[in-house]
Specification:
Blueprint (H helix, E strand, L loop, with lengths): L1 E7 L2 E7 L4 E5 L24 H14 L18 H10 L8 E2 H7 L6 H9 L12 E2 L13 H11 L10
Parallel strand pairs: 4-5
Antiparallel strand pairs: 1-2, 2-3
Helix pairs in contact: 3-4
Length: 172
């Protein structure tokens, strides 16, 4: 395992990986672009990224700069995540850039109709925001409900704005 810091138009981010794939992404701590907390909790050293992580970094930098990417080809290591959240993350990864889905729609896609709240809890624990695009999941009325990445719904709204998703003024 290892991790690397990298700069984007959104601010400084961190990506962490195992031999199998990306295990974490951390976005900037706040909307002022401060660097995210380091990943000491992984027990991994800062290191040069392997090719798949380096490619993911290039894709993230491009996306946050407005050249939208969907990240479906980025390999993930979800071995530390339960079966239900894995299904939710797989369903969320089918939402293309510039589009949104409701928690209920993601529940349907994950094979758990009626479990919108459970989907919300799973997405709230998403260790790989942006690559698992939980920011594209909104409530049934189109509202932004929580976002576990730093900056909360402000960050969620900024990510959707990069993707060209129109937001009501109170979200901007």
């Amino acid at each position: 395992m290892g991790y690397a810091l990298f700069d984007t138009d959104f601010g400084r981010c961190i990506i962490a990986w195992s031999e199998s794939g990306v295990v974490r992404v951390r976005l900037p701590e706040a909307d002022d672009g401060r660097p995210p907390r380091r990943l000491e909790d992984l027990g991994a050293p800062e290191a040069p990224p392997p090719s798949f992580a380096a490619q993911a970094i290039r894709e993230i930098v491009a996306h946050l700069g407005g050249d939208l990417r969907d990240f479906r080809d980025v390999p993930l290591d979800l071995s530390g995540v339960g079966e239900f959240p894995q299904r939710v993350y797989a369903a969320a990864r089918t939402i293309p850039p510039g589009r949104t889905a409701t928690y209920g729609e993601v529940a349907e896609r994950a094979g758990a109709p009626g479990e919108a709240r459970a989907v919300g809890r799973a997405l709230g624990a998403n260790p790989i925001p942006l690559i698992v695009p939980c920011h594209r999941v909104v409530d049934a009325g189109g509202g932004l409900r929580g976002f576990s990445a730093p900056g909360g719904t402000l960050t969620k709204g900024r990510l959707l704005a990069i993707e060209g998703v129109g937001l009501p003024l109170e979200w901007a």
